[in-house]
Amino acid sequence: MHPASINDRQDRAFAAHILDLFTIAEQKYIPRFSGFLDMHQSTLARQITSGQSHRSFLFFGGHPGSERVMLGVFPPYEEPDPDAFPIVPLTLRFRLEDSVGHRDLLGSLMGLELRREAIGDILLEPGRAVLFVAKSVAPVILSELTKVGRWGVKVSQGLPEQLPALHQYQDKNINVSATRLDCIVAAVVGCSREKAAQRVRAQLVSVNGLTIGETAHILHAGDIISIRGYGKFLFAQETGSTRKGRLCLLFKKYI
After folding, report:
1. What is the CATH number of the domain that holds 115?
2. What is the residue-averaged pLDDT of the chain?
3. Element (H, E) at 204
4. The pTM is what?
């Protein structure tokens, strides 16, 4: 994928930045890293890298199953190394009764005048949170983050023995005739296929962070769909079929 083939101006600039990482790594023989990418950027970056002859690159966010990841591009013939990524894990501790939420924590981090691309995944559970952040901003967080909202927190570098879950899900089993986007949206939302198609054509549905306007777009296990007004869903797996040949699928709704 070449930047000139991308219509959106911001996406075109982002694509050029990704290609610059490859150029510098190849010409100067030094690894280059993006900031943390959101789902839209990650999907776009994966499309761009799929067409590169240079294969020494890796997407990594600091832990297995990372959602927000950096792209690391390494010199030709150098094995990509997760340990080379400029990512620092931080653990925050607070009282079990303190109702610290994801938005509270992200808001406090942004209050330190940090850029969003410097903050990776935030794993949260009662009494504790684990952050993955760019190495350049870790000292700021360690020295200046003492409160989240009205609650006091203590920040230390490193990981606990067991990581909190990245997300909580609610299972949703559906039966569809095909894994077309309009069929999936209809089953997940509980509406007619025509109304689902209208939502898709109105660009109210995204797949892996990219807005999809084609009703016939085929979904695959691992895809994440967002439906405006209804939330976000992970296509977990195909679990079988009915006697009439309809597909049985397991989706997981983010809660």
Report:
1. 3.30.70.330
2. 94
3. none
4. 0.85
